[in-house]
Design goal:
Elements: E1 4-5, H1 11-23, H2 32-37, E2 42-47, E3 50-59, E4 64-72, H3 81-96, E5 100-105, H4 108-113, E6 117-119, H5 137-140, E7 145-150, H6 156-159
Parallel strand pairs: 4-5
Antiparallel strand pairs: 1-2, 2-3, 3-4, 5-7, 6-7
Length: 174
């Protein structure tokens, strides 16, 4: 079983899964309109025709993409669905020519195990947050952690990027 591109028939399952985690306070809420507009970005894993996991690969720039809306139903955790979803996103990112992929998450250990590096949120391009006030970097400062994965490294600078956590906003942003 592999992760597959989502289609309109998966929308309810994705919305339910993301809504569940949003209500528990561990995920950013997503509207139905948001999901409909971005459905082509999503991958799903299914068991018996039901969505048990999902994630999306969102283009930020020609070199950078974000893995977002990453969720697996609790009863299916540990069965490899998360890895299948992440692998599908990383394959697509490499095929599209992205150099880096990042995610904002509370589940850092999973991404660490998959060779993502913890980074400062100050390194996220501001266009990531445009039109998404719920993802304001100042609001996220103490909530989620940024993890980055290099897909293509072409300089020593990129290989030795700073690894610190943004815990409070700079004074000029207050």
């Amino acid at each position: 079983m592999d992760a597959i591109k989502a289609d309109a028939g998966d929308l309810e399952g994705i919305a339910g899964l993301l809504g569940y985690y949003s209500c528990r306070g561990v995920m950013t809420p997503r509207t139905r309109e948001y999901l409909e507009e971005r459905l082509r970005e999503f991958y799903v894993c299914k068991r018996d025709g039901r969505v048990v996991g999902c994630c999306a690969l969102h283009k930020v720039s020609s070199e950078l993409a974000e893995v977002r809306c990453f969720a697996v139903k609790e009863e299916f955790m540990g069965e490899g669905f998360g890895r299948m979803l992440l692998d599908a996103c990383l394959r697509e990112a490499k095929d599209a020519g992205y150099r880096r992929v990042f995610t904002l998450t509370l589940e850092g250990e999973f991404f660490r195990k998959n060779k993502f590096t913890r980074m400062s949120k100050l390194k996220i391009p501001l266009q990531t947050f445009q039109g998404q006030p719920e993802l304001n970097p100042i609001k996220l400062a103490g909530w989620m952690t940024l993890f980055l994965k290099m897909l293509v490294a072409d300089s020593a600078h990129e290989l030795n990027m700073e690894s610190r956590t943004f815990t409070s906003p700079p004074r000029h942003l207050l």
